[in-house]
Amino acid sequence: MPKRRTKRGEERTPLGGDADVLICGASFAGLAVARELADSGARVLIVDRYEIGERQTSACAAPTEWLRALGLEGSMRQTFSDLVIHTPHTTVRMGLPWTFSTFDYRELCGLLWEQSDAEFETAKVEGRSGTTVHTDRGDLSAPLVVDALGWKRVLDGNAYQPPEAPLSRGLEVHPWGADDELEIWIDRSYVPAGYGWSFPAADEVRVGVGSFDPRFHVKEPTLRLAEDLEREPVRYQGNWIPHRLRPAAADGVFFAGDSAGHCLPLTAEGIRTALYFGIACGRELRAVLGGWKSRDEALRDYAAFSASHRWKFEAMLRVQRLVPRVPPRLLALMLRGMERRSFVHWSFGHYLNIAPPEFASPPPPAPAREPLAAAA
Ligand SMILES: Cc1cc2nc3c(=O)[nH]c(=O)nc-3n(C[C@H](O)[C@H](O)[C@H](O)COP(=O)(O)OP(=O)(O)OC[C@H]3O[C@@H](n4cnc5c(N)ncnc54)[C@H](O)[C@@H]3O)c2cc1C
User: Fold this and answer.
1) Which residues line ligand 1 (CB under 6 A)?
2) Count of Cβ atoms closer than 10 Å to residue 150 Cβ
3) Are 195 and 168 in contact (CB under 8 A)?
4) Do residues 361 and 279 lie in contact, with contact meaning Cβ atoms separated by under 8 Å?
5) Which atom of ligand 1 is nearest the CA belonging to 257?
6) pLDDT digit string (tens) for 212-269?
7) Ligand 1 center to residue 104 CA distance, Å?
8) Which of 37, 140, 206, 278 has the most CB atoms within 10 Å of its CB?
């Protein structure tokens, strides 16, 4: 097991006190909220159990336009204009109307952090009483509390437990190596409902398998896919992936990213949406800090904004449920039909518009703070 960077032993001094905004979770969603609050004049505190950028949570592929819109180009590793889909009966190549890029997680988080002026502490969040958050280092209070802690949604009393909950599971390995293609396998010999992937990122390739059925274990198929691709099964990372929206506001708390189920069904693309809803949440918080809205109004408006996307998430969930039922030969025929440029442009255009890159505010002319390494 890798040893994660966090405060240990005597460094774990007691924490306490108040902030104007307390953001729990310093990954895509939490850092996007903090970025949106830069220069608001508020005391913004982020807590995470690990140092920023320490624990990669995904294959880290996102639409390039989103990374550019947020000024995160420096973290990009490789860009792809085609998506190659393999099934047992065909291989199709879709020329995308926009590109995907893989990126370095630590660098991306560092760049987002530089654009915020929040404070950061490592602490494990354990629960909440009202607007007081209990951590293993003490209690922290703020009138505005954000749960960006991922699928566990720690700050909600209603716990979700796999495998009963609407969660997919994903596991990948990160062998060193290079490749040119962004590839997907829809192949029931690997996973009955789900897909496998190979996402190159300059000097490493992220190879994994995701199952929409949380009961199906993905370790063996991940190893098999890696073996079939002649990749070493090293440096594992995996997690549960939500595939249903949950209320984005509950009991006075804002939820953003996986904690609100903001990961898209079917594709399990959750980075772009965590950034998108994180920004939306940050804007609502800013309105409260600026005195334009009450906290309750902001909670209501943010929840309504999130819920207005429900039909799109539900439509994708229906396709997620349908694909595993389509006989493989028919699926191959359908994919060949979908390879047409006009269809790919139409469908991927709509797909991007679920959370479009134009939503992002431009990065500040100069970062609000020192780079992460210098600040540490
Ligand atoms: C194997 C795999 C591959 C994936 N690949 C992609 C991909 O290529 N592209 C894509 O768009 N999506 C991908 N996803 C989905 C994507 O990773 C998630 O949707 C995304 O990470 C959600 O971001 P988030 O900020 O909401 O939560 P997370 O990234 O899960 O971050 C949660 C943060 O909260 C912290 N935290 C959790 N619990 C506590 C606690 N109790 N106390 C303190 N801190 C805590 C964690 O340390 C972490 O920093 C993948 C998922 C998996 C599992």
Assistant:
1) 25-30, 48-50, 55, 57-62, 124-125, 148-150, 152, 154, 170-172, 208, 238-239, 241, 257-258, 263, 268-272, 274
2) 23
3) no
4) yes
5) 26
6) 999 999 999 999 999 999 999 999 999 999 999 999 999 999 999 999 999 999 999 9
7) 14
8) 278
